[in-house]
Amino acid sequence: MGNSTTKLHERPRSVFSETPKKKVHHFFNVLDIDRNGQLQPDDFVNVGKKIVSQLGIDENSRGARLILLKSHRLFVQLLADLHNPELTLTLWDWIAFFRDQIESVDNGILDHYIQRTSRHVFDLFDVNKDKLISREEYANMLMIYNIPNDSAIQGFEELDRNSDDFISSDEMVQALNNFFKSENSEAKGNLIFGDWR
Ligand SMILES: [Ca+2]
Ligand SMILES: [Ca+2]
Ligand SMILES: [Ca+2]
After folding, report:
1. Distance 167 CA to ligand 3 centre (A)
2. How many whole angstroms separate alpha carbon 52 and alpha carbon 61?
3. Less Cβ around it within 10 Å: N or C end of the chain?
4. What is the CATH number of the domain that holds 107?
5. Dihedral (CA of 46, 98, 169, 19) sign
């Protein structure tokens, strides 16, 4: 029995190998909406604006302001997670953050980040607020982030583990866990933000 406790502490550290690195790099490009090689407030605010225009709601309405606030908050929290006092994140900051988290013995910060990213996806893209992401809502997310739809159709199938045609928040967290942590290039969830290969 004492043995199992020891084993917990002997968990081998994960290595930030080429596969997770490629995925994280791809995710940076997805978030870098204006493709200037830096994550800045504009990238996130523009996502909010695109959602508002996709929904066809009045830019000055409460709903629209809430969406803009939520997408901006995503960036502010990201800066806090990365302990970055600047309003700009470079690819280098980004990759170093994930490398440090994945290679750390304690995955607490990364798990927290995954939970929060999942919450944000639901906040921004679960339009009818049924706590499920439908195919249509997922397709809208891809469109907002300029992710080609073809690879992501397969992504949806893999995310939807119980094949009920919806992505639940548990399925989202599982997918993000694989996306950020798995060294397996075929892991389910890898295609959540399109084809990174
Ligand atoms: Ca940018
Ligand atoms: Ca929904
Ligand atoms: Ca499902």
Report:
1. 4
2. 10
3. N
4. 1.10.238.10
5. positive
pTM of the model: 0.89
pLDDT per residue rounded down to tens, the chain (197 residues) = 445 555 555 555 677 899 999 999 999 999 999 999 999 999 999 999 999 999 999 999 999 999 999 999 999 988 988 888 889 999 999 999 999 999 998 888 999 999 999 999 999 999 999 999 999 999 999 999 999 877 667 889 999 999 999 999 999 999 999 999 999 999 999 999 998 98
Is residue 56 classed as helix, strand or coil in its secondary structure?
coil
Is residue 3 included in any domain, yes or no?
A: no
Ligand nearest to the CA of 32: 1
Ligand 2 center to residue 16 CA distance, Å?
34
Ligand nearest the Cα atom of residue 159: 3
Enclosing domain of residue 48: 15-181
